[in-house]
Here is the input.
Amino acid sequence: MLDAPLTRSVPCRRYRNGRFSDITDDVATEIRVTLTVAGVGKKTLYAAPLDPEVLVLGHAALDMLPAGQLPVMTAAEGLFFDLDVRPDTRPAPDTALPRGLPAAELLGLMRRFIAEPGLWNDTGCFHRAALYDTGIGEFVVRAEDIGRHNCLDRLAGYGLRLGLCLPELVLFLSCRVTASMMHKALRAGIRMVVSRSAVTGAALTAAQEAGITLVGFARDAEERFTVFTDPSGRVGM
Here is the structure.
């Protein structure tokens, strides 16, 4: 974490029940992060003041480089990062993973994912995402940020840092699955996405074309979810 606070208190006026009152409320802090990838270009990101290096690695991997290439950090000064490119020599993912999830287990995992204490408890401003390993039965990494796309960038960055194989893991999301979110997930090689929220038509089309599993509206309190596409039969009883 950086020295910058995650939130700051500000004076404001609240209107409720027909009257105004002076209150103090918390707003989330955003920082400006700049990354330059050799031979590719420069990007500027706005994000929560949390581990910018992992955000930069993930964003470069998912948004700036083609398949078969990976980013490598070469220099960092403050919030400015330089990266180089190397070939992706990682072994091929296990095609049998992630394994299937029975309905009750899927809902239980969503309950755990949402109930985990996090940054959104203070401001309601943060999204969250996590990767679940069906082999060991644990969430292996979590990410929170103001922007939902940043959450996926962070997971990809953690994957590079920790040596995780993202295609073998299940992606859990607190946010709606839009086309841009789905394309990031596909670029990461994700094969199964479970969201607490809605799914757009373009995201569904992309998932269908890629042959991955997409589940939306996973609400444990209501004991429901919607399987939008599941060609590999990963979701069952």
Q: What stands out?
A: The mean pLDDT is 95. Residues 148-162 form the longest helix (15 residues). The radius of gyration is 19 Å. Helices lie at 52-64, 103-115, 120-123, 148-162, 179-187, 201-210.
